[in-house]
Amino acid sequence: MLLFEIVRTSQQVGQTSGRLDKLVHLGACLRHLAPEEIEIGVNFLAGRLRQGTIGIGAATLRSVAAVAATKEPVLTLAQVDAACETISRTTGAGSTAERRRILDTLFSHATTDEQHFLLRLFVGELRQGALEGIMAEAIARAANVPAASVRRAQNDRLDLDTTIVTGNRELPKVLYIVPWKKADLGDLPAQPFNTLLDEVLTPVDRDVFRREVTYYGVVSSGGKTTPAAPAGGDEK
What we know:
Elements: H1 3-15, H2 19-31, H3 38-45, H4 58-64, H5 77-88, H6 95-108, H7 112-123, H8 129-143, H9 147-155, E1 157-160, E2 163-167, E3 172-176, H10 196-201, H11 206-220
Helix pairs in contact: 1-2, 2-8, 5-6, 8-9
């Protein structure tokens, strides 16, 4: 899909006050996305980049704003996303100049409307809480699935500072734990009481664990007591 189609949809949504009309515009655009473009397109329409913050400063954006625009739309979503991905990975000596070069090339292939869209996208001006609120319903309509299913999928990601839990509220699929973070679960919203998540992830007391190991040894050995390891060192 061309970036122009995302820009046009964004303009239509911005000029429309009715929720249903916004959904019609968003759904029509989303249905034309190729499978590999869906993540990119949804993020652009929601006013954000797939990569998050990519390290473009205000001075750089002011300079690329002066790049001459092209007259006909030629940029694709994949090309814009690839440029953003390269910029996000460009670090070290000379990175500022390299980012500027990539942006100059990108903006030289963009129309005036596309340039304005990209500038606002990079600085976060396109992010709207109301738009993000109806995006789930627009995705559901485009995919012909219940909106509740999409909302559940959105809620199945919890960002807890630098600890991320991806999965459902009962049991995560992936857990990234930062070693220097405090060993607790934090305040998970709508967390049921006494869940399997609590049982698996709650920090274990050393003495309690040793008693449980001893109890398990007794049960598994048919009632014969298994001596516990000395409290101050390894078993002999």
